[in-house]
Each structure stands twice: as C-alpha cells, then as structure tokens.
Automatic annotation (TrEMBL):
This is Adenosine 5'-phosphosulfate reductase. It is found in: Cytoplasm. It comes from Kutzneria chonburiensis. SUPFAM superfamilies: Adenine nucleotide alpha hydrolases-like (SSF52402). Its EC number is 1.8.4.10. It holds the Pfam family PAPS_reduct. Its cofactor is [4Fe-4S] cluster. The gene is cysH. Binds 1 [4Fe-4S] cluster per subunit.
Length: 233
C-alpha cells in the first residue's frame, strides 16, 4: 500500500476515533488490517502477547515490531523467538544505533541509573521513531487499567509527534480480561508474567509488583520516571 498524506491520516483517525470508540478489539484490528495493510505495525514488548495473538487472528501477516534494547530478560527474548515461530505475523526486531557496549563507552556504564530518560531516548524512542517511518498506523497494547497515567487511553488516537494513527485496541481491557483471553485461546505468554512481573521492560528497570499495586509500579520503581517516552505524542 502507498503511504497516505498526513492530512488524510488525520481525517481517518478522527473518523475512526468516533466510530470505533466502543468496538471490540477484533473489530478494531480487522479495520486496521483492511485499512492500512502493510503500512500497519504492532509494537509489542512481548509481555503483551495477547495483543499479538489478536493481531495474528484479525490482521494476519501484520508486522510486529519488537524493540530489542539489549537489556531484556532472557525470558522476553525467548518469548519473542517463540512468537515468531508460532504466529502468522512478520516479526521485525528493531535495535538501537549503538550496542550496550558502545553506549557504555560513549556515555559511561549504567546510564539507566544516572539518566534513564536519556537511556530510554537512545535505546527505545529513537529506534522506534525510525522504524515507524515506514508505517501509517501503529498498534499498542496500552490499557487504561495499567496505571493512572494511562487512564485516558483512547481506542484510536492521533500521534502528532510522528504524524501517525495510534491504535490501542485493548484500551478498555482489564487484567482479568487479558488472563481470561490467554486461557481461552492458549496464548503463548512471557513466563515472567506468572512470576510477579505484571509489566515487563528492561531488566535493570523492572521489578516484581507488590500485591494490589498497579501493573506498571514495577517499572523504574523508586524513581520519578513512569513512562519510557514511547507514548509521548
Ligand atoms: Fe535504559 Fe532502563 Fe529505559 Fe531500558 S528501561 S532503555 S535500561 S533506562
């Protein structure tokens, strides 16, 4: 499919935001697959393989972008490889410009302890921005119940910084909805999810979540940071 002009994408986003507000995840992903074809990408952390399963069913062949920061848990890399081998999707691994060793030489070791915003900018935001230039719309696994910072997540929105449509088909799903779907459909899950990690990111910045705390409280725990910047629009 050819790239659409930004103004046309904006019109599509506005119309879809109104029409798909209460649509099911299957309906939203089906619409996205038909509308954008190979200009659609799903971004997955491999903690949200329920989203990958849904996308594989309702937009088969879709590109699934996995951001390999170089700091992932081995379980996450194993999940990525199993997903690529199991689901009818096109797995695209996106890497930062510098390896961890190169970044350490340039900025000093453990940048994530001294300046996690810079580390995320280098290892997450810049590479994803580059990858998304090839698409008109991207799909995320953001859910409103993950944390207060995500409480207003729309099903379809406009990513103004990137000039793309941003689609969050499971925005209204709860943690229970995710678990029920995973059991019903035999979804291949990241084993860390059943080991107390309710939201999984880079190993140095992810801890288990205390009982009753929100899912993202284990990310950058004890620091003011709550988001990596991927979702700053
Ligand atoms: Fe760096 Fe931590 Fe951000 Fe990963 S989550 S890119 S290790 S600061």
């Amino acid at each position: 499919m050819d790239a659409r002009p930004r103004a046309e994408l904006r019109r599509i986003a506005d119309r879809a935001a109104a029409e798909l507000h209460d649509a099911t995840a299957a309906e939203v992903l089906g619409w996205a697959g038909r509308t954008f074809g190979d200009r659609l990408a799903v971004a997955s952390s491999m903690a949200d393989t329920v989203l990958v399963d849904l996308a594989a069913r309702h937009a088969p062949g879709v590109h699934v972008l996995f951001l390999d920061t170089g700091y992932h848990f081995p379980e996450t890399i194993g999940t990525r490889d199993a997903v690529a081998a199991t689901y009818p999707i096109t797995l695209v691994t996106v890497v930062p410009e510098q390896t961890v060793a190169e970044q350490d030489r340039w900025y000093g070791p453990r940048l994530y302890t001294r300046d996690p915003d810079k580390c995320c900018a280098l290892r997450k935001v810049a590479p994803l921005d580059g990858a998304l230039r090839h698409y008109d719309a991207w799909v995320t696994g953001m859910r409103r119940d993950e944390s207060p910072t995500r409480a207003d997540t729309p099903v379809v929105g406009w990513d103004d910084r990137r000039g793309l449509i941003k689609i969050n088909p499971i925005a209204a799903w709860t943690a229970n909805d995710m678990a029920e779907y995973a059991v019903r459909h035999g979804v291949l899950l990241n084993p860390l999810l059943s080991d107390g990690y309710l939201s999984v990111g880079c190993r140095p910045c992810t801890t288990r979540v205390a009982a009753g705390a929100d899912a993202r409280s284990g990310r950058w725990a004890g620091r003011a940071k709550t988001e990596c910047g991927l979702h700053s629009t």
